[in-house]
Design a protein that fits this description.
Blueprint lengths: L1 H37 L4 H13 L30 E3 L4 E3 L1 H11 L5 H6 L5 H15 L13 H15 L9 H5 L5 E2 L2 E2 L18 E3 L4 E3 L1 H11 L10 H13 L9 E3 L1
Parallel strand pairs: 5-7
Antiparallel strand pairs: 1-2, 3-4, 5-6
Helix pairs in contact: 2-5, 3-5, 6-9
């Protein structure tokens, strides 16, 4: 009897150790795969497209976006991404990078911002917004996130975003925290970072926009959040909504001190 119990205990120990080794090996393999793709990252093509769009005169006003104010002053790109979303006095709203780019496309170039916002991700001018976001974000690569919280509206958005992160609902009774609220969570071979704190450089909020190898697409932060809600079986938030801005503020403030690695490569 004792021998049987001892063998069972030993077998369970070996199984646990083997499982841990397999998981570690899988994680390491994914990281090695990403490292190989990073050399010649397809996101560079989107970055180049975004740079061309930033400098090119377009729209009804035949103007470029080079005077777009992303929070650091007209035309200043370096350091802008790692301080977004933030409050803008001209719109009296908290806006992330993509929202702000649409505002600039409307005011400087004469595009219809409402029409762009209704365009599906990856199509028409919305595809251009993603390319522009990739270019702008890349100008702050390696810089540390430090979202402002000096304005009362920014602080209010943080609190709303926090509630949204933990709000459960949908057919599966999920929340953002279901996947990203505690250590050790994973989906298939994908480790899930804890987003209630700084998860580290180039992880979580500090990793998007990113190139998705699985579908050959460039994903912005808004699309990443939108798809998270889809997977939770929630109604997908509209582009530019206050809900997405608030959730981004919560995640961005929590990522304070993390270095941006944009553009990254994801599965």
């Amino acid at each position: 009897m004792r021998t049987t119990k001892a063998l069972t205990t030993l077998a369970l120990g070996i199984l646990a150790a083997t499982t841990a080794m397999a998981q570690k090996s899988a994680t390491q393999s994914i990281e090695e795969y990403r490292a190989m793709l990073a050399d010649g990252n397809p996101a560079e093509l989107f970055e180049a497209k975004g740079e061309d769009l930033w400098k090119k005169k377009r729209g009804p006003k035949n103007a470029s976006l080079e005077q777009c104010d992303l929070g650091k002053g007209p035309g200043v790109l370096k350091g802008a991404f790692v301080e977004l979303p933030r409050y803008f006095a001209d719109t009296k709203k908290v806006q992330d990078l993509e929202m702000r780019l649409v505002i600039c496309m409307e005011t400087l170039q004469g595009f219809n911002g409402a029409e762009i916002s209704k365009t599906p991700f990856g199509r028409g001018e919305m595809a251009n917004v993603t390319a522009l976001a990739t270019y702008v974000a890349t100008q702050s690569k390696g810089m540390k996130f430090n979202l402002p919280q000096s304005h009362e509206t920014e602080r209010a958005y943080y609190e709303v975003g926090k509630r949204m992160f933990f709000q459960r609902g949908g057919t599966h009774d999920f929340s953002c925290a279901s996947c990203h609220g505690e250590e050790g969570k994973r989906i298939r071979l994908q480790d899930l970072p804890v987003l209630t704190k700084n998860p580290g450089d180039g992880i979580g909020f500090a990793a998007w926009p990113a190139y998705r190898v699985s579908n050959g697409q460039m994903w912005s932060m808004q699309l990443r959040l939108n798809d998270c809600y889809r997977q939770q079986r929630f109604p997908e938030p509209a582009f530019g909504s206050d809900a997405l801005a608030a959730l981004s503020v919560y995640l961005g403030v929590n990522a304070k001190g993390a270095a941006s690695a944009v553009p990254t490569v994801k599965r």
